[in-house]
Amino acid sequence: MRILLYGWDTSPRLGVPEICDASVSIIKKMGHEYVPHKSKVICAEAIGFLGYDNLVDPLAKATLKEVEEVVSKEDVDLILTSYAAPYAAWSKERNGFLVQRGYELPVPIEHMATFLYKNLDKLKFKELPMRILLHDGCTLGRKMGVVEEPRKVLAKIPKLEVLNFDHPELYVKERNLKPWDISACPGGWLDFTLPELMPYVASNVIREYALPREVDAVVSTCGNGYHAFKAGVKHGKFPIKAMAYANLVDMALEGVE
Prior knowledge:
The protein is an alpha/beta fold. Helices cover about 45% and strands about 15% of the residues. The protein has 13 helices and ten strands. It has a four-stranded parallel beta sheet, sandwiched between helices. A four-stranded parallel beta sheet has the order 7-6-8-9. It is globular, with a radius of gyration of 18 Å.
């Protein structure tokens, strides 16, 4: 299988090129080939979530044209991303918001968590003695409902302890809130609007919700969330790690059986 890695240019721009490295490593361990998605309109889908509706259609058309060209040229079978916005926009399976507007990618798109989950019976993991706090990307968890998939993959990793956010001030019995509903946002989207504020927001989330749990790392299922947590750890000089979901899985993944 040839896989187009979507968000290839986004990760270096955000200062998290390690997401690309982990994604490539996972794909190779699973016996597939990869093609980097080098885009002039980097993850333009995010513009829709920021309220710029008038820009959505022209950027969607530009993105679709780019993707169609590379899929045809490189004989791509699948698009894979570690970012929530592209998946939430283009997933036909989950009726993404660009699909609702009449746009459709030439091949299916998967988020790293859904891709791994659909191949879970083939994956072989080694022990990973870590205690982590799992952060559900806002768009991925609350909007798209991708919540069980990342947890079921992590449950297969021996000696990995996964904790969910504890956000007691949001406990309202009638709402039946789940862990993915109460994952405090580290402010990843502030990078587009108020980048100076993002490290403060993220460090506050870490201080309030991660440090008291005595975890080794806070792990986000969205690359943008990880980007914020990484900045928060650096800003607060905290003795824990921030990790992207792909990087954590890559540490434990040995290959396929």
